[in-house]
Amino acid sequence: NAGVMQNPRHLVRRRGQEARLRCSPMKGHSHVYWYRQLPEEGLKFMVYLQKENIIDESGMPKERFSAEFPKEGPSILRIQQVVRGDSAAYFCASSPQYGGSLDTQYFGPGTRLTVL
Amino acid sequence: DAKTTQPPSMDCAEGRAANLPCNHSTISGNEYVYWYRQIHSQGPQYIIHGLKNNETNEMASLIITEDRKSSTLILPHATLRDTAVYYCIVGYNFNKFYFGSGTKLNVKP
Fold it and tell me: Which residues, in sequence order, are bridge partners of residue B93?
């Protein structure tokens, strides 16, 4: 059973460009979470999505950031007009739709975004 | 805003048990205790979680106090590959997780 997949693993953008990060959840999982980790810090929650719905975006910056999880295809985290402060590791996690008490969030390997 | 308190770092000799403490005095009745670890800058790896009872799996054991205000993750025979940052999280699945600063475990030969 393949784990959570994220691509690209490394992404370099110049200031003002757009960054698109993709996350394919584990097979059978329909819940996706995005977290950001700045250097030397813990992960910070950004957004929680189900298929075609944003459930909780309380951790997402109000401007330039958006996320989607379409009916078909991976979840996308989009950052418009990137700035140097967006440089970080972005992790995606997924969990199953009907997770019981034994289930939790499973994380992907992350995308390292560097803004020049 | 992490709801847990962990020591910033701990050392452990290879082959010995590593006992990582976590305080979560404000835990609510239905919140679980989860443990993850992050090796270098890889994605967090799930270790174990529990609600009230002690839990054990192939990786570790989780001991939760009766009042649920603290817990201990036990790695029974630490190896060099267990060197990582260990995060204790309280919460629910289908909800955001708060990651604090974690405990940097250094396993030494």
Answer: none
- Asked whether the CA dihedral B39, B27, B2, A29 is positive or negative, the reply is positive
The C-alpha atoms of residue B49 and residue B56 are separated, in whole angstroms, by 9
Kind and range of the H or E run holding A65: strand A65-68
- Chain A residues within 8 Å of chain B (Cβ atoms): 4, 31, 33, 35, 37, 41-45, 48, 56, 58-59, 89, 91, 93, 95, 99, 101, 103-110, 112
User: What is the C-alpha to C-alpha distance for residues A14 and A5, in angstroms, rounded to an integer?
Assistant: 25
- Rounded to the nearest angstrom, the minimum Cα separation between A81 and chain B is 26
Instruction: List the single residue in B43, B51, B95 with the smallest CB-CB distance to A110.
Output: B43
Q: What is the DSSP letter of A106?
A: E
pLDDT digit of tens for each residue in chain A (116 aa)?
579 999 999 999 999 999 999 999 998 888 999 999 998 888 999 999 999 999 999 999 999 999 999 999 999 999 999 999 999 999 999 998 766 666 789 999 999 999 99
Position A62, amino acid: K
